[in-house]
């Protein structure tokens, strides 16, 4: 089988190409562990290429054992103990048959074991005793008995056997006649030699001579014959024969597998195209329809539960599968109807899902690893660590880890709870804004000439104007607007209207925001929980927290690389007494009786909170994962179960089961959880309203100044006065007039009425009404109107007559017409 040297020719398939065929099967079945059993020492040389290829993949583990008659049983026992289920057997037909017989005795002929035989004569092995065990058996065949040329040769050999009593063909019971591949290779060698000799005789004249192997005599035509052998092309029993450098160039291998009917051709391997799986048995997992599968599970509400009416029965085993109910029980029944298999549900002895401890798995994972169960149907989390030892189907539920905690007690609302919708600083700012606006509108109203109006519109000759925005009225106006009630006074000037408008806008937003947030405070129950997330748990020490011992949640914290979860795991494992529970029920009991939080899957939390209204979920999910059905490694059941799960998901049947066991049977009937309280509005929420208010005040002041300037200039144009004098007869500038008006405006104890303001000059008429500043006039107000008691006369403006008119108005009559 080694590459030929010199003039040798080898028709046996090349060892490197055979190794490629074996490797293709290994890759097709995604074998992660592999045991190589070889008989002869040369077998290890043939396996070199396989070892070289798998060594480049760190995910594969390869073990090598040499076996013969003396230690074959010991090798198989070791493989059984260490769960080596995928084996390549490189032995002759006799050794292969003995190995299968011992494997059957050791209980290793089942659907969980896969044997790959390197012999090219798999047809010659008696497999009748193994085909009903549904063992995964793969072999190779070099000679195709269905080929027309091969069938003719077999018939001729059969006749020749009958006449000569020689054994030339394989005649295995209940199998078609085949030719041993060694005999077929010898036949093809003779056929090739005859073909080359014939071609040489046509091309070169030569005479055969005797040649001895003991003398140093070279046959002159030997090299020519070798050339014709290498150039000849024949079709033999082993297929097309082409040679290159003395070895076979290409060949085909039939890939054979075993089912309950016997060996069948499952595919074809060629050097050019590799492994081509051409045929798949309609039920390669024949065990599904003919064997009662062992289902291992863990009691866990609502996945698997004992029926309430049967919990106190002294002999529950008599009920069989009817003892159980739950989501996973219904799911298993639906899957069995799709895939067609019988099953028996059993509880795992230790009641755990499984954790790896010193190389040994506990719980349901251990049951699958040790092949004590065929399927694990429970709330079994798919994880990387578990995937190294068992197989999982597609997930039937998606979930994550969350926190289960008791519901906080409802807080009684405080006496001043109506203040809660706004933050305390907002209330302070609103009060400050109220005072500022009230004072601003008071000052601007007294300063603006348009806020002074005639209190008697029918009497246009009146000499008195009135301002309604006294200090008390200004405060009343702003508070009425703030309370959305209004008042009996309204601004007249543009400046005061700007203040009023911005204040109305301000109060609109504040009152609307307050009302909206107040509704949230009144409708949402205020329940303050001491923790809101896993971070809150890690930061405090008063509340203990833990999880189910030996579960995937514990593994999550134990193996996590996140600092927060590492800190929490250190707390869990060091806490005394232990915060890890043996069951979910123990965790719930500790939540109710102690200051304790329990980490578990979100689906289980939803189920519990639907039935115990005193418990609630805290925070979101810590991770994302799924529940799947577990099977032993390389189990043929996995793909069929996965297809059934996908079919149920597409049809919505899994969602119906979820609604049945989670929502339909709950007594709390909670809607999606809302926030426990609404957040108080801060400066960042309503700060812009204060900016608008301040901007409006500034704009109002600016407009008031413009109003005064505009009114002063308009009066100057109407009176035609070029020079303005005060009541003393002294010349008065525009700034002085503004200062006098401002001083009058800021006098909080002054009257809301004043005389009309007129200017005097040399060109005006004799009789004028002169505005006398109140700082220079002593007055009293018997009827609410201004009355003059004493007036200092200007030396340049002597008056001829003083008299009081109707209503207490003072008329000044100047005799000098030039005044």
UniProtKB/TrEMBL annotation:
It is found in: Postsynaptic cell membrane. The record marks 558 as: Interaction with the cone snail toxin Con-ikot-ikot. GO terms for cellular component: postsynaptic membrane. It holds the Pfam family Lig_chan. L-glutamate binds at residues 381, 386, 552-553, 601. It comes from Mizuhopecten yessoensis. GO terms for molecular function: ligand-gated monoatomic ion channel activity; signaling receptor activity. Gene3D superfamilies: 1.10.287.70, 3.40.50.2300, Periplasmic binding protein-like II. It comes from the Eukaryota. Residues 292-664 form the Ionotropic glutamate receptor C-terminal domain. It is a multi-pass membrane protein. Residues 302-370 form the Ionotropic glutamate receptor L-glutamate and glycine-binding domain. Keywords: Cell membrane, Disulfide bond, Glycoprotein, Ion channel, Ion transport, Ligand-gated ion channel, Membrane, Postsynaptic cell membrane, Receptor, Signal, Synapse, Transmembrane, Transmembrane helix, Transport. Disulfide bonds join 613-668. The record marks 531 as: Crucial to convey clamshell closure to channel opening. The keyword Cell membrane applies. The chain crosses the membrane at residues 426-445, 502-524, 686-710. This is Glutamate receptor ionotropic, kainate 2. The keyword Transport applies.
